[in-house]
């Protein structure tokens, strides 16, 4: 063989590895080869062939995934048998199973809901088989991914006995994607929806996106930005949406659209969008009928109304209830739903922004239709590195309340910083709202159990784009993954999520998984510390929100500035939200009010969220506030240093491409953690007039330098917003 041929053979041989191993495209669905011969044999002993009872596109999806998995794990073909063989995997929904199997599984079916699944080793006609069954098609898909996951985690499968069901009904990604393919707050390239080529071009990415979502139980996708464009509701675009819906259906994923409230005027030629005007109601009703004629399982609408310049019912002196119910009535005949966003604050309202959503919505508790979900961000300001839970959770027992998390890291270092968000979401979900009885956690509000709600949901603002690895930062994938897991089970602990994800995405080697799980868990507190410790919030640069900007003032609205939130002055720092200040604290239950009212008893992580305190205020550890603030910033930086060291030891476990990318990104993160620390401390020092403590290295630059830094082309924002 000539040298050239040897080179080509090597290149082609390596190609699949280069394509699928190192670039991260295959996410957590890598199905890496099982090299341990005993383990491999034990699996093969349990997986002779696949047999299906019944037929459906979802069963085809499940079978195909098994084939893919089998090929990856064992470099072999799994046979699709015409009859049930010994050690077969048997798929089929309840209605298609023979009586003999049904009677074995009777009590298992009692344990699952409509989307749940059963994965069980049983004996049927004298043969041991692995059954994957469910009440609906999509349950089979979920069960199949679960079986594959058990193998990815190298778990024993010879005595499987698993029943699992989602605890939340609507588990949706919100894409803030525009029709021109820019993504608002998107840091992973452009929108994956190639609107121009739809409906004719169906990209492989659409299918792989659906596989990834189904593997973690996500069952809905809102294709368009909350700052909506009415054009997506025109016939031309509905055809494109239908093409995507057709791809997603077998994976159990419904599509939703954002509805621009003024659409009846913009694309319907009406003179008003007043929700009580008969012609407006008729227009929406006709529009929804048109959509459902094309997409019979269309999910419904998400609406951002009367917020940050978006049109809404308030333009016509109508309430949010009038607006939401009007759309709900149009959708109800088709079983569609409205996700009405509670992210509402008005430039005309001088009240603390943190209070406005509660003041707007609590008085109308119980007035929304049954097919309306009120979509509430985890905190009352805006997806900050740390916020106390939103006071609306628990305060509207007669309304369907859903959670909105932000997976894309708008305020947490874009796709440059490694921050494991499920740790933060877990903190919010576990908080006790003290509203109805014992242990009234946010998770119980969200899964409906606290006040017996029939419609439940969790939304995550997606971090997905056209980057080869979908999310830009290889560890951004963990946040997508973790969102799905928590939407399925909001009681899950984030440690389990890290471990599963690390094993599926990198390796099962404990030398990697244990230190990296710890790194991921700690990464959340690190970002809080180097950006906004002790309850500080919203002090990033304006517009694009990248990097520190505690000096930001003079914006079109006071509540878009940093000085509004930190209120640093010669007397101290922090936002007084007690009764002597904005009194936002009064929106929480009495138990919380009592505890948070005093700076002595409030958890220190929320200190400056609720209190304005003197720089020399003495804290728990005996040191003053200034020293504590500085030491938190320093801790944050040191944690990122530690993350760099840990990762540098992971080279033996990771392919070069991902290893190098993460190593470079961690260096950026360290540089920027120092930037945050130095810029913020130098800025606040002007007011504290105290020396920087010894443990803070001398800042590389002066304050003027940090203030002069500009990022005019930071990603994720319309240039006009900058
Ligand atoms: C803010 C984002 C803005 C979104 C808004 C929202 O900066 O781009 O439109 O949230 O959630 O955090 O509507």
TrEMBL record:
InterPro entries: A-glucoronidase_C_sf, GH, Glyco_hydro_67_aGlcAse, Glyco_hydro_67_aGlcAse_N, Glyco_hydro_67_C, Glyco_hydro_67_cat, Hex-like_dom2. Belongs to the glycosyl hydrolase 67 family. This is Xylan alpha-1,2-glucuronidase. It comes from the Bacteria. It comes from Gillisia lutea. Its EC number is 3.2.1.131. Residues 151-470 form the Glycosyl hydrolase family 67 catalytic domain. It catalyses: Hydrolysis of (1->2)-alpha-D-(4-O-methyl)glucuronosyl links in the main chain of hardwood xylans. Gene3D superfamilies: Alpha-glucuronidase, C-terminal domain, Chitobiase/beta-hexosaminidase domain 2-like, Glycosidases. Residues 27-147 form the Alpha glucuronidase N-terminal domain. Keywords: Carbohydrate metabolism, Glycosidase, Hydrolase, Polysaccharide degradation, Xylan degradation. Residues 471-694 form the Glycosyl hydrolase family 67 C-terminal domain. Homodimer.
């Amino acid at each position: 063989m000539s040298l050239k041929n040897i080179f080509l053979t090597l290149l082609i041989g390596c190609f699949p590895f280069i394509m699928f191993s190192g670039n991260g495209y295959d996410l957590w669905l890598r199905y890496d080869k099982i090299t341990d011969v005993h383990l491999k044999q034990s699996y093969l002993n349990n997986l002779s062939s696949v047999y299906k009872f019944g037929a459906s596109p979802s069963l085809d999806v499940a079978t195909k995934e098994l084939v893919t998995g089998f090929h990856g794990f064992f470099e072999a073909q799994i046979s699709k048998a015409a009859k049930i063989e010994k050690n077969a995997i048997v798929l089929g929904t309840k209605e298609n199973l023979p009586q003999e199997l049904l009677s074995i599984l009777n009590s298992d079916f009692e344990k699952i809901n409509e989307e749940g699944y059963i994965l069980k080793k049983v004996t049927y006609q004298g043969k041991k088989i692995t059954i994957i069954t469910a009440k609906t098609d999509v349950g089979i898909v979920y069960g199949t991914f679960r079986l594959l996951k058990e193998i990815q985690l190298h778990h024993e499968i010879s005595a499987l006995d698993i029943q699992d069901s989602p605890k939340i009904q609507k588990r949706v990604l919100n894409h803030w994607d525009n029709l021109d393919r820019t993504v608002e707050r998107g840091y992973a390239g452009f929108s994956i929806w190639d609107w121009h080529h739809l409906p004719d071009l169906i990209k492989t990415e659409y299918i792989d996106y659906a596989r990834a979502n189904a593997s973690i139980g996500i069952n809905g996708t809102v294709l368009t930005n909350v700052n909506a464009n009415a054009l997506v509701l025109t016939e031309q675009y509905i055809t494109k949406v239908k093409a995507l819906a057709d791809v997603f259906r077998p994976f159990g994923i419904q599509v939703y659209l954002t509805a621009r409230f003024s659409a009846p005027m913009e694309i319907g030629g009406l003179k008003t969008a007043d929700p009580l005007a008969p012609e407006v109601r008729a227009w929406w009703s006709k529009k929804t009928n048109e959509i459902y004629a094309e997409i019979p399982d269309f999910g419904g609408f998400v609406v951002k109304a009367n917020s940050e310049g978006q049109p809404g019912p308030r333009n016509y002196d109508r309430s949010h209830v009038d607006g939401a119910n009007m759309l709900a009535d149009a959708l109800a005949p088709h079983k569609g739903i409205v996700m009405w966003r509670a992210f509402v604050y008005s430039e005309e309202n001088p009240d603390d922004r943190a209070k406005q959503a509660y003041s707007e919505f609590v008085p109308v508790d119980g007035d929304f239709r049954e097919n309306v979900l009120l979509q509430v961000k985890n905190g009352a300001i805006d997806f900050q590195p740390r916020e106390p839970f939103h006071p609306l959770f628990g305060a509207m027992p007669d309304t369907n309340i859903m959670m909105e998390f932000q997976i894309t890291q708008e305020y947490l270092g874009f796709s440059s910083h490694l921050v494991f968000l499920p740790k933060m979401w877990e903190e919010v979900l576990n908080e006790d709202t003290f509203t109805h009885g014992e242990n009234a956690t946010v998770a119980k509000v969200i899964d409906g159990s606290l006040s017996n709600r029939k419609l439940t949901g969790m939304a995550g603002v997606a971090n997905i784009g056209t980057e080869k690895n979908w999310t830009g930062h290889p560890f951004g994938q963990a946040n997508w993954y973790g969102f799905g897991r928590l939407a399925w089970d909001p009681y899950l602990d984030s440690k389990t999520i890290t471990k599963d994800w690390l094993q599926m995405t990198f390796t099962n080697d404990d030398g990697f998984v244990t230190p990296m799980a710890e790194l991921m868990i700690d990464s959340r507190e690190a970002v809080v510390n180097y950006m906004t410790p002790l309850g500080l919030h919203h002090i990033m640069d304006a517009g694009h929100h990248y990097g520190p900007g505690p000096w930001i003032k003079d914006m079109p609205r006071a509540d878009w500035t940093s000085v509004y939130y930190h209120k640093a002055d010669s007397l101290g720092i922090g936002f007084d939200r007690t009764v002597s200040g904005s009194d936002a604290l009064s929106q929480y239950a009495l138990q919380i009010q009592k505890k948070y009212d005093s700076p002595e008893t409030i958890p220190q992580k929320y200190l400056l969220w609720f209190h304005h305190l003197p720089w020399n205020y003495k804290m728990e550890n005996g040191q003053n506030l200034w020293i504590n603030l500085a030491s938190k910033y320093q801790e944050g930086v040191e944690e990122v240093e530690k993350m760099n060291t840990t990762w540098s030891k992971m080279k033996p476990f990771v392919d070069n491409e991902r290893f190098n990318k993460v190593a470079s990104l961690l260096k950026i993160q360290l540089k920027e953690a120092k930037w945050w620390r130095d810029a913020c401390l130098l800025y606040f020092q002007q007011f504290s007039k105290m020396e920087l403590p010894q443990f803070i290295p001398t800042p590389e630059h002066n304050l003027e330098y940090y203030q002069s830094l500009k990022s005019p082309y930071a990603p994720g924002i319309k240039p006009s917003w900058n």
